[in-house]
Design brief:
Blueprint (H helix, E strand, L loop, with lengths): L2 H27 L12 H34 L4 H28 L1
Helix pairs in contact: 1-2, 2-3
Length: 108
């Protein structure tokens, strides 16, 4: 896949997860009975999409930053510490997705 396709897939995952989260939040706010049936599955679907979307976005970011970091370290090995910080920041996207997923799971 090319970069545009990956960006579109990640964007679509976040749009879908946002719609699912808002839909489940509105159903809880309106007092809709979600004690059983298929309506109780949507928060779990939103949780899955958010964690998966965050992981895919982190993988894409680490790939881009990692390739650039290796190029920088090949020319200037003394910049290893600075480059490592940028790779860690890119990995933080997955951690943010996981934290949001835990927050959603605590509300279910």
């Amino acid at each position: 896949m090319n970069k545009k396709t990956v960006k579109r897939v990640i964007f679509a995952l976040f749009i879908i997860s946002t719609v699912l989260i808002l839909g489940s939040a509105l159903s809880f706010a309106e007092g809709v009975d979600t004690s059983g049936g298929a309506s109780n599955i949507w928060p779990y679907v939103a949780l899955t999409v958010i964690v998966a979307g965050g992981s895919f976005a982190a993988a894409y970011a680490v790939t881009s930053v990692g390739c650039s970091a290796i190029g920088v370290m090949a020319e200037k090995p003394d910049l290893f510490g600075r480059v490592l910080v940028f790779v860690g920041l890119a990995e933080g996207i997955a951690i943010y997705g996981l934290i949001i997923g835990i927050m959603i799971l605590s509300k279910i």
